[in-house]
Specification:
0% of the residues lie in helices and 47% in strands. It is mostly beta strands. β5 (44-49) and β6 (56-58) form a beta hairpin.
């Protein structure tokens, strides 16, 4: 089970930290990804982190503004979002992908087998 939290309404330029709490699986066997979907648009990749955090991937539009991290002892992945823009408005979901490779990550949503329900992030004045 994956449960996201931390979404909300923020003004442009503001910050939010999303959390993804994972239960029911061996957390350190899973790479975790964050994806988002805005109204009328397809789901898109945001960021991903490997099993023990040694490798991260970001969508170009969030590089330098978002940071993904994980604390395996807490079974939790975070997405720190700074300098938020109106175009970051979307439902953000985390997803888990089993892998036997420490450095393995993926940007493809089809490669993730477990998904959370999502949390709404709205950036607006």
């Amino acid at each position: 089970q994956l449960v996201e939290s931390g979404g909300g309404l923020v003004e442009p330029g503001g910050s939010l930290r999303l959390s993804c709490a994972v239960s029911g699986v061996s957390f350190d066997k899973y790479a975790i990804g964050w994806f988002r979907q805005a109204p009328g648009k397809e789901r898109e990749f945001v960021a991903a982190i490997s099993r023990i955090g040694g490798r991260t991937l970001y969508q170009d539009s969030v590089k330098g503004r978002f940071t993904i991290s994980r604390v395996n002892a807490l079974n939790t992945v975070y997405l720190q979002m700074n300098s938020l823009k109106v175009e970051d408005t979307a439902v953000y979901s985390c997803a888990a992908r089993w892998t036997n490779l420490y450095s393995d990550t993926s940007t493809a949503p089809t490669e993730y087998g477990y998904w959370g329900q999502g949390t709404q992030v709205t950036v607006s004045t």
